C-alpha cells in the first residue's frame, strides 16, 4: 500500500493602509505568480489592503520559509504603510497603542462622519487612557459655539474647506487640552445646495500644535463616503503620530 505524503500549509497576514490595491501589486509585481513563491490573495477595505501570504510544503519548514521571506520583502517594499502582520489586530488598535506609547491624548471633532471616528477608537479596549472627548459639530452654529470656528471663516470659505478643518483641529485641542485632535468636514450627500461637490472632504490633524489638512475626493453613496472619510482620517492620524514619534 502506497504511503500518503503529508502536506503542510502556513500563512501570514500583512495589513496595509493608505495604499490602493493597484499600488501594492505594482510594488510586489515580481513576487506574484512565480512558481517558487507562495500564493498571495488580496482583500480590500476602505483605506486598507489586506494581503494573505500562504505557502505549501512537504514539511512545516518548507511551508513556512517562503512565506517568511515574502513577508520580509513586503516590509522592505511597503515600509510604514504596513500597520500590522497580525490578522486579529485592527488599524484603530495600533493607533491607540501608538498614543499610549507616546503618552498622548486625543480629541475628535467631526462633521460629516457624525461620530464614526470616535466610535472606531472607542471600540478599542483601554482607549479611556488616551481618549479625551468627541464632538459632533454638524451645524455651522455648533462649529462656532463648541469649537470656536470663526464666523468669518464659515462665511468666506464655507463649512467644507481647508480653513474650517484647520480651525476645528486647533479648537478641539485647545478646548480639551489634548495632544492630538482630528477633524473631519465634508459633503457626504445627497446634494441639497447648488455647487456642492459630493465626496469632497477635508481632514485635519493637529499633533502638539502642528496642523496638517488634507483634501480628499471620495466616490460612492452617502454611507460609502462617510466610511472612506473615517478610514482615511485614521490613516492620516497614524501618519502624523509616526512623524512625531519619539523612541
Task: Please give a structural write-up.
With 247 residues, the protein is α+β, with helices and mostly antiparallel strands. It has 8 helices and 9 strands. It has a 5-stranded mixed β-sheet, with helices on both faces. Strands 2-3-1-4 form a 4-stranded antiparallel β-sheet. β2 and β3 (48-57) form a beta hairpin. α3 packs parallel to α8 (222-243). It starts with 7 loop residues before the first strand and ends with a helix.
Quick overview of this protein structure:
The protein is of the alpha+beta class and about 250 residues long. It contains 8 helices and 9 strands. Strands 6-5-7-8-9 form a 5-stranded mixed β-sheet, sandwiched between helices. The protein has a 4-stranded antiparallel β-sheet with strand order 2-3-1-4.
Radius of gyration: 21 Å
User: How far is it from the N-terminal to the C-terminal residue, by CA?
Assistant: 61 Å
**What can be said about the biggest beta sheet?**
5 strands, mixed
Number of helices: 8
Strand order of the largest sheet: 6-5-7-8-9
Question: What is the typical, i.e. mean, pLDDT?
Answer: 94
Order of helices and strands: EHEEHEHEHEHHHEEEH
According to DSSP, the number of beta strands is 9
**What global shape is seen?**
elongated
Indicate the structural class.
alpha+beta
Query: Which regions have little confidence, pLDDT < 50, spanning 5+ residues?
Result: none
Strand content is: 25-35%
Helix content: 25-40%
Amino acid at each position: 500500500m502506497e504511503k500518503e505524503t503529508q502536506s503542510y500549509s502556513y500563512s501570514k497576514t500583512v495589513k496595509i493602509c493608505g495604499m490602493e490595491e493597484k499600488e501594492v501589486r505594482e510594488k510586489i509585481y515580481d513576487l506574484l505568480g512565480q512558481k517558487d513563491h507562495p500564493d498571495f490573495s488580496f482583500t480590500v477595505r476602505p483605506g486598507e489592503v489586506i494581503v494573505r501570504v500562504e505557502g505549501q510544503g512537504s514539511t512545516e519548514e518548507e511551508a513556512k520559509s517562503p512565506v517568511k521571506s515574502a513577508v520580509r520583502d513586503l516590509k522592505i517594499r511597503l515600509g510604514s504603510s504596513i500597520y500590522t502582520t497580525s490578522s486579529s489586530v485592527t488599524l484603530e488598535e495600533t493607533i491607540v497603542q501608538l498614543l499610549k506609547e507616546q503618552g498622548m491624548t486625543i480629541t475628535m471633532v467631526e462633521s460629516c462622519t457624525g461620530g464614526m471616528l470616535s466610535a472606531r477608537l472607542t471600540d478599542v479596549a483601554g482607549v479611556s487612557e488616551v481618549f479625551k472627548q468627541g464632538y459632533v459639530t454638524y451645524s455651522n452654529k455648533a462649529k462656532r459655539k463648541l469649537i470656536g470656528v470663526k464666523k468669518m471663516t464659515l462665511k468666506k470659505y464655507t463649512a467644507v474647506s481647508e480653513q474650517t478643518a484647520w480651525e476645528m483641529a486647533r479648537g478641539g485641542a485647545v478646548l480639551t487640552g489634548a495632544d492630538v485632535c482630528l477633524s473631519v468636514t465634508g459633503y457626504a450627500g445627497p446634494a441639497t445646495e447648488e455647487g456642492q461637490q459630493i465626496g469632497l472632504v477635508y481632514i485635519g490633524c493637529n499633533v502638539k500644535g502642528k496642523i496638517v489638512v488634507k483634501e480628499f475626493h471620495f466616490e460612492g453613496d452617502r454611507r460609502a463616503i462617510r466610511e472612506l472619510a473615517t478610514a482615511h482620517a485614521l490613516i492620516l492620524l497614524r501618519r502624523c503620530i509616526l512623524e512625531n514619534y519619539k523612541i
